[in-house]
C-alpha cells in the first residue's frame, strides 16, 4: 500500500521552541493553519481511501481541511503520536533539545534500550508505531494519509523503510546541519509496501530520497 506520512502544521509551541509531546498539545499557529489548508491542493488528483491522525490535536487540526474536502472522517491512532519527551517535556533550552534529539540519535545507532527522559525506549516507540501502521494496513485501504510528528516519522522511517540515509538524520538531530531527511511542518514522506515485506521511501517532501529539495 501507499501511505503519505505528513508532519503536522506549525504550532504555537513550535514557535516558542517548547517540547510538546503530551496530549492534548498545542493548537496550530496561523502559519500552521495555512500549511493545513495547503494540503488540499497538495493532494489534488491523489486518491485517498482513509485519513489518520494521532492523539495530539495538532494532527487533527492539520488533517481537517483535507478531510473536509474529501468527505473522510479521520481515524485517531495513538501510535502515530510524537515521541514522548519524559522529563524533558515542556523544555525549551538548547540542552533540553540536545538531550531529546541525542536520545533519538542513540536509537538510530542501535541503542534502542535507552530511555527518553527516563520514559519510553526506542523499542517502545517502534512497537506502537508499527501497531499504528499495521492498523492502517488492516483497514483494507490502498492509499492513506497519516498526519503524525517530525521526530516519530524520521525515526520510524529510518528503522523500518529503505531509501533513507540514517547518518544524515543523525547529523540533523545533532543540530549541526539540516539535511533532507528532516521534515518541516506541513511536509510529507511517501512510503510504499507493507510491514511483512518492508516499506521503501518513494518521496521525501516531493522529491526522491537523496535529491536536493
TrEMBL record:
This is Histidine phosphatase family protein. InterPro entries: His_Pase_superF_clade-1 (IPR013078), His_PPase_superfam (IPR029033), PG/BPGM_mutase_AS (IPR001345), PGM_Phosphatase (IPR050275). It comes from the Bacteria. SMART domains: PGAM (SM00855). It holds the Pfam family His_Phos_1. One of its GO terms (molecular function) is phosphatase activity. It comes from Peptidiphaga gingivicola. One of its GO terms (cellular component) is cytoplasm.
Amino acid at each position: 500500500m501507499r501511505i503519505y506520512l505528513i508532519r503536522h502544521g506549525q504550532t504555537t509551541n513550535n514557535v516558542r521552541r517548547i517540547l510538546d509531546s503530551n496530549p492534548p498539545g498545542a493548537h496550530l499557529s496561523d502559519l500552521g493553519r495555512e500549511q493545513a489548508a495547503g494540503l488540499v491542493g497538495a493532494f489534488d488528483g491523489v486518491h485517498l481511501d482513509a485519513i489518520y491522525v494521532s492523539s495530539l490535536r495538532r494532527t487533527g487540526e492539520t488533517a481537517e481541511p483535507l478531510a473536509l474536502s474529501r468527505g473522510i472522517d479521520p481515524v485517531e491512532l495513538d501510535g502515530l503520536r510524537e515521541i514522548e519527551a519524559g522529563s524533558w517535556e515542556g523544555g525549551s533550552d538548547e540542552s533540553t533539545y540536545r538531550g531529546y534529539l541525542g536520545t533519538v540519535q542513540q536509537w538510530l545507532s542501535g541503542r534502542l534500550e535507552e530511555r527518553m527522559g527516563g520514559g519510553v525506549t526506542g523499542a517502545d516507540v517502534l512497537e506502537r508505531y508499527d501497531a499504528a501502521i499495521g492498523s492502517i494496513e488492516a483497514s483494507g485501504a490502498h492509499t492513506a494519509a497519516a498526519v503524525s510528528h517530525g521526530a516519530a516519522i524520521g525515526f520510524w522511517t529510518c528503522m523500518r523503510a529503505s531509501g533513507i540515509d540514517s547518518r544524515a538524520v543523525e547529523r540533523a538531530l545533532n543540530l549541526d546541519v539540516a539535511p533532507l531527511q528532516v521534515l518541516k511542518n506541513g511536509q510529507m514522506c511517501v512510503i510504499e509496501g507493507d510491514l511483512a515485506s518492508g516499506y521503501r521511501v518513494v518521496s521525501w517532501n516531493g522529491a526522491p530520497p537523496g535529491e536536493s529539495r
